[in-house]
Design a protein that fits this description.
elongated, 6 helices
Length: about 180
Amino acid sequence: MAPFAAIPAGIAADRLMQLIARTPAAAEAGLVVPDLLLVVLVTRMGAAFRAAGSRTTMDKLAYVVTRTPPGATALKGWSAGVAFRKSTFYCGILYREIRPQVPQAAWAQLVAKLCDPVEGPTLVDFDADLRDPPADVVAAISDHYAPTGVGTLWRRRAVGKEGQGSALDPVKAEP
């Protein structure tokens, strides 16, 4: 969230510089203020990236980038960390406000896609938002995907001889 805070901070710094530029005595201070603001911004952003919540996001991003092919798809909740992969669902992210607007037929198509070893997403970010859709969606995720051990990421199970999922997909499994 800290990087987004930099936007209003930049606007505020610009306004401050405009106020400082109006008075001659404050013009000299105007040379120091941007440097101080930059130091504060860098310090805050560094702390945000070292925070515990950011570590999980960074681990998820690293997993996605290093252990899935660029053309892989993902079913995404609202939590961060599954960037750089195309969404498998037409609305992109299944957050709380969008779920009531999803038609029943789209939920049925999603369940079919989750059960299909070829068309289904490689990854599912099984966060709180994906644990809340209709029960058949949650059941399809639980039946066909397994936790990776990295945050809320789940990966497609390999299809065994009996048609049941066993280990993680061997083609894309972790080293």
